[in-house]
Design goal:
CATH superfamily: STAS domain
Number of domains: 1
Strand order of the largest sheet: 1-2-3-4
Oligomer: single chain
Helix content: 40-55%
Radius of gyration: 15 Å
Largest sheet: 4 strands, mixed
Distance between the termini: 34 Å
CATH topology: Transcription Regulator spoIIAA
Number of strands: 4
Number of helices: 4
Shape: globular
């Protein structure tokens, strides 16, 4: 998304704050990718890039949905694909915990 697109999105919907924060940390042999914000729309690509890079390291990966307010259909699809690749999904909060339970239960494991 270009700077002009970001500005237009902010001006057209001033009351609707959109953002995502993705951080990577390590805990022992595991890689922890923590997500805060909205897992939808243009933000899916950011998470996919982080996870793709982490997968190349060949270590176990946890995705922690810490403070996620929205999970769109594209976000659900991404989480389903990641779970199928063996990435462990963790969540904080009732909404995200239920989404993770539903997705993990439906995802085929490798």
């Amino acid at each position: 998304m270009s700077p002009a697109d970001w500005k237009a999105a902010c001006i057209s919907k001033p009351r609707e704050a959109r953002m995502i924060r993705v951080t990577k940390s390590e805990e022992g042999e595991r890689i922890i990718i923590t997500i805060d914000g909205q897992l939808s729309g243009d933000y899916i690509e950011v998470v996919e890039i982080f996870c793709g890079q982490a997968l190349t390291e060949g270590r176990p990966i946890d995705i922690f949905l810490r403070d996620v307010s929205t999970i769109g259909e594209s976000g659900r699809a991404l989480l389903t694909r990641l779970a199928a690749k063996g990435i462990h999904l963790l969540a904080n909060g009732i909404y995200t915990s239920q989404v993770v339970r539903d997705l993990v239960g439906a995802a085929p494991r490798r």
